[in-house]
Prior knowledge:
Layout: H1 14-25, E1 30-42, E2 45-58, E3 78-88, E4 92-103, H2 106-112, E5 118-119, H3 125-141, E6 146-160, E7 164-178, E8 199-210, E9 215-217, E10 221-227, E11 236-242
Parallel strand pairs: 4-11
Antiparallel strand pairs: 1-2, 2-3, 3-4, 5-6, 6-7, 7-8, 8-9, 8-10
Region (Disordered): 1-20
GO molecular function: cysteine-type endopeptidase inhibitor activity
Organism: Oncorhynchus kisutch
Amino acid sequence: PLPGDPRGVQGPGGPEEGLDQINTDLTEGFILSLNRVYDEGAGVLFNLTIDVLETKCHVISKKPWKKCEVKDVANVSVYGHCMASISVGKSVELRSYKCAIQQVPATVIVDTCPDCPTVVQLDDPILAETTNLILQKYNRMNRLPNYFTLLNYTASSSQWVVGPAYFVEFTIRETVCAKDTPDVDLTQCKMMDCEFAHKAFCTGSHTTLDDGTFQTKLPIEVKCKIFEPEVGIFHNSAITAMPHSNLSN
């Protein structure tokens, strides 16, 4: 079959269903969208190379990849490929997979969109400070009975607006600490370890107004979407993100 033709594998949606199952199995990062497909095999067993693009949907949303918008340059595009083994019969079974993804180089983003945000490394101290401020605000404003704590960073970027602006994306998880408990030290709150614990995907920003003489902190913006827990499907799998993170199942 020609590259990019998912109809090359005979059966009910071969590569598309294979990618659905890969996304279901992922526990970190963002849902991957199908770009092109190359396949080898005959009969019922196929080895696929699936070119993928990262979407704006976090994996905890469990949304189908066809309903997710692919990240553009302004969102720091991420691309890569998945090597997958599937069997195709009355249904498609994902036997194993391994994915490698990477961000579009910063130089390409700057050349394409000079005013777009640029990547901030996940180990930058400003990221922890920004995330902490955003999480504090969310814990104050949401109406759930327990505090949330940081689960994972997913992305960060910066841009000069009226001063340095930092944008972060991260996941949070419900803790055992109730909001009506006085003098809570959130760093000592354990995550709720049960299937009913809420998780959320958050985006937020923090901007400092800099007029050359004074620096003024502008209001923190935060938006979190809470998802109910769902039981995932386990496969023999791995995903590697280069160079900003390294994930494996």
